[in-house]
Amino acid sequence: MPDDAAVEKAQLLQALGAEVVRLRPVSITHPEHPVNVARQRAADTPGAVFADQFENLANLRAHLDTGREIWQQTCGKLHAFVSGAGTGGTIAGVSQGLKALNPSIQVVLADPQGSSLFNKVKRGVLYTWHEAEGKRLKNPFDTITEGVGLNRLTANFAAAAVDDAVRVSDREAVEMAAYLLRNDGLFLGSSAAVNCVGAVKAARALGPGHTIVTVLCDGGARHLSKFHSPQYLAQYDLTPVAEGRGLAFVGAA
Q1: I need a surface site. Which of 114, 141, 142, 215 has the fewest CB within 10 A?
Q2: Rounded to the nearest 10 degrees, what angle do helices 190-206 and 170-184 cross at?
Q3: What is the CB-side half-sphere exposure of residue 152 using CA atoms within 13 A?
Q4: Res 228 pLDDT > 50
Q5: H/E element, 231
Q6: Whether 178 contacts 67, CB under 8 Å
Q7: Distance of CA 181 to CAs 142, 186, 189, 191, 223, Å?
Q8: Alpha-carbon distance 109 to 81, whole Å?
Q9: Neighbouring C-beta atoms of residue 23, cutoff 10 Å
Q10: What is the mean predicted confidence (pLDDT) over 111-123?
Q11: DSSP letters of 36-74?
């Protein structure tokens, strides 16, 4: 796994008996990218299986049921589904599952800063300003969120039926996580916070009387050392400041 991921994610896997190899963040084309190292380790280990969750369409197929479950639990009365994309499996499977039942349901991507998928949906091109000439850094740092956003097109995301996309800043995600803990007692991770910001933006765009669904896909316990660390957030001037039940911290789509 990348060595810039929250350390408690590695600690949990180690507690479960796994060997965890932490690697510096590099391009997917580099042999030392975690995906490529995992693939090679599996090939070199008798009886091992490489899950390949980014490209394996079993990921998407599992979430066809998620889409049908959402349909059943809303009695088919929903207007939009909002989700970020880590592997792309959730948004792909849910979008296919829902649109098979009602093609008019809107599927909206919530994309964190530093990810290229927003522009892929809106303009058909994988691009983020961090990749502009003279902007790319040797050790890029684009976002404090983890497990959401991509700068490549995976097989799972390529199969998603996405109608629109909204951008989500780190500030919005951090404030949303604090808002949900303060008002609803929900202690969520950065991916779920991104989803909830996206859901607010979709709700504003559609207006009153519409039902918008998202997923709370990660808990805060795996983000204690970064996303939920006051000291870490202060380093990037991201200490939550919003109070009460207002959502003014959510900006325009």
Answers
A1: 141
A2: 90
A3: 9
A4: yes
A5: helix 230-235
A6: no
A7: 25, 5, 11, 15, 14
A8: 9
A9: 16
A10: 94
A11: HHHHHHHHHSTT-----TTT-THHHHHHHHHHHHHHHHT
- Is the model's pTM score more than 0.85? yes
d(CA 120, CA 59): 21
Lookup: tokens for 50 = 């490489």
Q: What single DSSP character describes residue 30? A: S
What is the per-residue pLDDT for 252? 87
What share of the chain in percent tops pLDDT 70?
A: 94
Q: Which secondary structure element, helix H or strand E, spans residue 212, and what is its range?
A: strand 212-213
CB atoms within 10 A of CB 172: 25
Are the beta carbons of 212 and 199 closer than 8 angstroms? yes
Instruction: At 41, list the tokens.
Output: 């380790």
Report how far Cα 189 is from the mean position of its chain's Cα atoms: 10
Amino acid at 248: A
Task: Output the pLDDT for position 142.
Answer: 82
